[in-house]
Specification:
Layout: H1 8-23, H2 30-42, H3 49-61, E1 66-70, H4 76-84, E2 90-95, H5 98-110, E3 118-122, H6 125-128, E4 137-142, H7 149-159, E5 160-169, H8 185-199, E6 203-208, E7 214-219
Length: 221
């Protein structure tokens, strides 16, 4: 072994330590922790703290007043988004599970957000999105069934104003996207949405290694 070469097991430990440091950089408060616990209990795994902090940062940078969320879950990502949005901003969140939206309402109320700050729509997102205002939103966030991600990109970009941002959670899928042998529908769709965002000249994309991967893309025109 070369004198300065780090053992492989030490590299893995350092990688895990860095990941944990990044994810714990901004500690979640009691409201977020409670929402995360309810989400885990319901089986709708929430976005990690690192990804959530990125959503808040993006919403704040945009001074977002209109945001669409595909996949309400237990409200964890919605809390991060609302905390970054303008004080009069409205979050539109779509989910097919009424129980998820019930607990999300609880989370938003615990955080002190009045009902006027959000509207929860129950239904299939691919049916709902075309009914929303084209170019009427500052940001779109997607955390939903992975095989549908490419279709969410197409529908979501139409909703963005120029300068708006679309974001997708879990795009690294535990690393399966890097394995060419993995060709299941979810992994294939994740590769497709990343490649489409990268190759679309109207988008400026960025792949962030936060949590299980956060893909963001800004609409330029």
């Amino acid at each position: 072994m070369a004198q300065n070469q780090v053992p492989q097991n030490q590299v893995a430990q350092n990688h895990d330590a860095v990941r944990d440091y990044v994810e714990g950089f901004l500690a979640e408060d009691e409201v977020l922790s409670s929402a995360r616990e309810r989400g885990n209990d319901l089986g709708c795994v929430p976005i990690g703290p690192g990804g959530g902090a990125a959503l808040r940062f993006l919403a704040c940078t945009l001074s977002a007043r209109a945001v669409v969320e595909v996949g309400t879950g237990a409200g964890t990502s919605g809390l991060w988004l609302l905390r970054g949005m303008a004080p009069d901003g409205v979050l539109t969140s779509i989910d097919v599970e009424p129980e998820y939206q019930r607990v999300a309402r609880t989370a938003f109320a615990e955080a002190g957000f009045p009902p006027a700050r959000y509207r929860l729509i129950m239904g299939q997102a691919l049916d709902v999105l075309p009914r929303l205002t084209e170019r009427g939103y500052d940001m779109v966030f997607v955390d939903a069934p992975k095989p549908e991600y490419p279709r969410y990109l197409e529908a979501g970009v139409h909703l963005l104003r120029p300068g708006g941002i679309i974001a997708f959670d879990n795009v690294l899928s535990g690393g399966t996207v890097t394995d060419p042998a993995q060709r299941d529908p979810a992994t294939t769709a994740l590769r497709e949405v990343a490649n489409t965002a990268r190759d679309d000249t109207s988008l400026v994309p960025l792949l962030l290694p936060l949590g299980d991967g956060l893909l963001v893309a800004l609409r330029t025109s």
